[in-house]
């Protein structure tokens, strides 16, 4: 045998040499048929095989094959798919014809599998790369405001909260946002972090929005809908891309008293991606935003109809510190007991209560309105096999921005990191990720201002008998004695008591503010120390290659919340609280009647360690093709939502003797001792203070909070008419049980004597999450029309309406939406000889509507608004660049998206984009 050993190297050489000879390459270039310009990112696939490539920035591709003939499939959004048969290695020149996307737009989120949008079993909307490029808005989060069924609340330039079906508020914990499969929520607070740590502007491949309940596939947080964002694949989108936006906002307007004045807006976004060989690719992203934020300046009195000039108990929505309110009657009684000659002046005041609020500080000058946001991302992909990729990514965001919840939050120097490891195949994925947050030096506007007021002059010092209220009372009596009318006397008394009050921006004010806001809540300050984390592992398998009679997917998910706020947000003073979630789901799609009918059934099982019982949820749907490109859809979903960590466990100071509270018995009984010191509705306490009749006090029935459920029905119709018009209409109806809302209650820790409620200094107010007893119904309808006008012109209009019935008047339900919305769009993605010109114009109209904020921050009517955004762009083909001139809120008519939120004016900008096509 030894004599044959010398033949082994020769055999190996012949074997690999033959293999090398068998491996040949097909190369080529892909261009736009109309302009003959290269088309980067075109997908070039070998039909029926795993081989393929993506066109580079100059439109070139290379596909390695082992045998001929083959069929190459060229596909790209906005162009007709083309198949080319290749019989030998050669260099191809491919021209793709522009085509309407109305019929062929593909979505994934509706069923976790690829399908045409028009055939989706539920309402879903999509934003693609071309939509973002041609948008007049400066970021894709602002774009969603014009999508059918979507509501937004804008807390600041850098913080937009998205939802659907009417449940609209800052930080909606029942609306899910996924970024590359990762939940985009803050681990502790549970609300989506949105564009604070979302994809950078240049790295968005597409955004899909599911309207309404989606918990059958996505779990508890998807009760009100889901927004699924997908980043760009570095194998497909390569090269350096740069986007520079320079604008100006706070331009003076007759419709607003904006105190800021014209200010620069700067946004810089960079993306670089590169493929290294056949198997490795990476990308890095960076975005930095700097601007002067919009200012919240609602002066509406939360304590009644009066103004700061007519009501001594005035507490403005966006004036902070006025929540400290005391009945000065005891001080008046003491004064007349010391000097009976004052009786003619004081006795008329003793016939009623005499509440007086401390003087509040306006937001501008108090909160820093300098927005600074930075986010960066890096991703590495390696092809273990032609069909399996290993993906490693990390995203980090930091900065300062303002957010609205139970008060306004100055989120300063926050830090959030999200890190992922994933194995991804055509039919399965295994994904693990973690989200880790650091709340930084976040300032709570309301409580901090109250503490600042107490620091420079206490409301009452029992040791000296002096204080702001005794001084106010003395000055009031003196002014009345000198003949002033009651209103003038109150104004004079406030001026006297406020002597020495530190001015906004002064060294004294800043010192007091910092000393309060940088001291933890547990040490008598207002700083919360949220260092919570989220860990998640998920696996999903698509059985399409194994099971042929139906399309089946199944998956499992495990999540752990590591709640760690050092007692400032949760009752976790001694150690972090761990909350575990376990989930499993499956879906079956069966096609019948020559594929004209698609029946889908989904089921999901979830267990949360805070609650004894698991929750199953189901979805069934049907899509029937009535005739060519005309689809009728129906769906039913039994959806649910576990109370979020905030709704269960929050224990956060939000004012003087006032807390935002979860509804678990652990808090209500073990921490607040409601089982000993009964709580009463705050409304009845305030009535009792006026009547002194204990029969007016109404106890609040304490029950441990539990999951809420909804049975939701939807009927819809979608059709493409004449290949140029896409129509989509729908109606929905949902029945809610154990609906979670908020209400204000009060108790007197340490005593059961009801007379203690007569003194605001002896009782504590809690804004509590709880389940309403009655059934609540929501319903609505919507319609949209998109028209392809040829030559890249497109027009869109949509109308939608959401309604709430049988609501619990004692709950704050966060159903903050107008009775209808109207959105319009008209634009062109490329016209002229070389398609170098483009433009787009959008219009959004909302009538006035009632808006409530949990925690007593405010409620009232949001005025109607008509907002026009517009842009015109020009491509410099030789430099692969685009210059765009645009404006958001072109008419500069200031508007707001919610009570206590800022008013938003126009912004006018110039944009320069390199290699963004």
CATH superfamily membership of the domain at 22-96, which one? Answer: Carboxypeptidase-like, regulatory domain
Shape: elongated
Number of strands: 50
Q: CATH topology of the domain at 22-96, which one? A: Immunoglobulin-like
| Rg over CA atoms | 31 Å
What can you tell me about this protein's structure?
The chain is mainly beta and 917 residues long. The chain has a domain at 22-96: Carboxypeptidase-like, regulatory domain (Immunoglobulin-like, Sandwich), CATH 2.60.40.1120. Helix 8 crosses helix 11 (507-517) and helix 9 (468-481) packs antiparallel against helix 10. The longest helix is centred in the N-terminal third of the chain and has 16 residues, at 7-22. The chain is elongated, with a radius of gyration of 31 Å. It starts with a helix and ends with a strand. Keywords: Cell outer membrane, Membrane, Receptor, Signal, Transmembrane, Transmembrane beta strand, Transport. It is found in: Cell outer membrane.
């Amino acid at each position: 045998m030894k004599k044959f050993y010398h033949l082994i190297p020769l055999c190996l050489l012949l074997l690999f040499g033959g293999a090398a000879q068998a491996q040949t390459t097909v190369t080529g270039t892909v261009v736009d048929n109309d302009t003959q310009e290269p088309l980067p990112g075109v997908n070039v696939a070998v039909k029926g095989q795993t081989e393929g490539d993506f066109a580079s920035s100059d439109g070139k591709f290379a596909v390695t094959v082992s045998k001929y003939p083959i069929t190459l499939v060229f596909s790209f959004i906005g162009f007709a798919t083309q198949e080319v048969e290749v019989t030998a290695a050669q260099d191809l020149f491919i021209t793709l014809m522009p085509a309407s996307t109305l019929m062929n737009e593909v979505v994934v989120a509706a069923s976790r599998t690829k399908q045409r949008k028009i055939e989706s079993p539920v309402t879903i909307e999509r934003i693609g790369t071309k939509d973002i490029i041609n948008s007049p808005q400066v970021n894709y989060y602002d774009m969603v405001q014009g999508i059918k069924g979507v509501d937004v609340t804008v807390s600041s330039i850098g913080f937009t909260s998205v939802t659907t079906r009417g449940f609209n508020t800052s930080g909606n914990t029942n609306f899910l946002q996924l970024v590359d499969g990762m939940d985009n929520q803050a681990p502790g607070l549970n609300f989506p972090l949105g564009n604070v740590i979302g994809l950078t502007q240049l790295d968005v491949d597409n955004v899909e929005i599911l309207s309404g309940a989606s918990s059958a596939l996505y779990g508890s947080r998807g009760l009100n809908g889901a927004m699924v964002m997908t980043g760009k694949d570095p194998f497909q989108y390569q090269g350096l891309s740069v986007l520079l936006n320079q604008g100006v906002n706070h331009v003076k307007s007759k419709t607003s008293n904006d105190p800021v004045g014209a200010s620069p807006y700067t946004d810089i976004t960079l993306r670089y991606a590169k493929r290294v060989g056949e198997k490795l690719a990476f990308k890095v992203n960076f975005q930095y935003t700097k601007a002067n934020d919009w200012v919240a300046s609602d002066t509406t009195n939360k304590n009644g109809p009066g103004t700061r000039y007519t009501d001594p108990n005035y507490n403005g929505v966006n004036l902070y510190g006025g929540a400290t309110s005391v009945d000065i009657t005891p001080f008046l009684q003491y004064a007349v007991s010391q000097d009976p000659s004052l009786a003619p002046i004081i006795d008329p005041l003793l016939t009623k209560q005499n509440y007086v609020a401390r003087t509040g500080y306006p937001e501008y000058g108090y909160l820093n309105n300098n927005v600074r946001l930075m986010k960066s991302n890096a991703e590495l992909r390696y092809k273990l096999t032609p069909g399996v990729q290993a993906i490693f990514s990390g995203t980090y965001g930091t900065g300062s921005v303002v957010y609205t919840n139970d008060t306004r939050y100055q989120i300063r120097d926050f830090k959030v990191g999200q890190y992922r490891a994933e194995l991804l195949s055509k039919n399965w994925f295994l994904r693990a990720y973690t989200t880790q947050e650091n709340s930084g030096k976040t300032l709570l506007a309301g409580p901090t201002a109250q503490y600042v007021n107490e620091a420079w002059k206490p409301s009452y010092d029992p040791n000296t008998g002096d204080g702001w209220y005794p001084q106010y009372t003395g000055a009031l009596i003196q002014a009345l004695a000198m003949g002033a009318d009651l209103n003038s006397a109150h104004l004079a008394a406030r001026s006297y008591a406020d002597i020495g009050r530190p001015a906004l921006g002064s060294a004294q004010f800043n010192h007091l503010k910092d000393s309060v806001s940088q001291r933890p809540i547990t040490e008598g300050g207002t700083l919360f120390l949220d260092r919570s984390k989220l860990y998640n592992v998920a696996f999903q398998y698509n059985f399409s290659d194994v099971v042929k009679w139906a399309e089946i997917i199944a998956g499992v998910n495990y999540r752990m919340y590591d709640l760690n706020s050092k007692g400032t947000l949760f009752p976790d003073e001694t150690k972090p609280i761990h909350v575990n979630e376990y989930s499993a789901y499956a879906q079956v799609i069966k096609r019948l009647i020559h594929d004209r009918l698609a029946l889908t059934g989904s089921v999901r099982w979830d267990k949360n360690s805070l609650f004894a019982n698991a929750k199953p949820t189901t979805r069934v749907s049907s899509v029937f093709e009535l005739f060519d490109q005309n689809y009728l859809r129906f769906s039913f979903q039994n959806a649910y939502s576990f109370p979020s960590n905030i709704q269960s466990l929050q224990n956060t100071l939000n004012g003087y003797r006032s807390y935002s509270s979860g509804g678990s018995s652990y808090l209500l009984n073990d921490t607040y001792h409601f089982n000993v010191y009964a709580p009463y509705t705050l409304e009845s306490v305030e009535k009792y203070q006026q009547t002194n009749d204990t029969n007016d006090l109404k106890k609040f029935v304490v029950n441990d909070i539990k999951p809420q459920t909804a049975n939701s029905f939807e009927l819809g119709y979608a059709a493409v008419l004449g290949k140029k018009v896409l129509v989509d209409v729908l109606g929905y109806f949902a029945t809610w049980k154990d609906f979670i809302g908020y209400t204000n209650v009060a108790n007197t820790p340490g005593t059961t004597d009801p007379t203690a409620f007569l003194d605001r200094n002896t009782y504590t107010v809690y804004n509590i999450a709880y389940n309403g007893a009655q059934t609540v119904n929501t319903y609505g309808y919507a319609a949209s029309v998109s028209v392809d006008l040829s030559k890249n012109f497109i027009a869109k209009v949509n109308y939608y309406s959401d309604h709430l019935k049988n609501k619990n008047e004692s709950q704050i339900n966060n159903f903050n939406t107008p009775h209808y919305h109207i959105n319009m769009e008209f634009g062109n993605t490329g016209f002229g000889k070389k398609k170098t010109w483009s433009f787009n114009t959008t219009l959004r109209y909302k009538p006035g509507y009632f808006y409530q904020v949990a925690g007593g921050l405010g409620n009232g009517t949001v005025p109607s608004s008509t907002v026009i955004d517009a842009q015109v762009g020009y491509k410099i083909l030789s430099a692969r660049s685009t210059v765009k001139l645009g404006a958001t809120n072109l008419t500069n008519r200031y508007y707001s998206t919610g009570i206590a939120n800022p008013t938003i004016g126009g912004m006018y900008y110039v944009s320069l984009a390199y290699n963004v096509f």
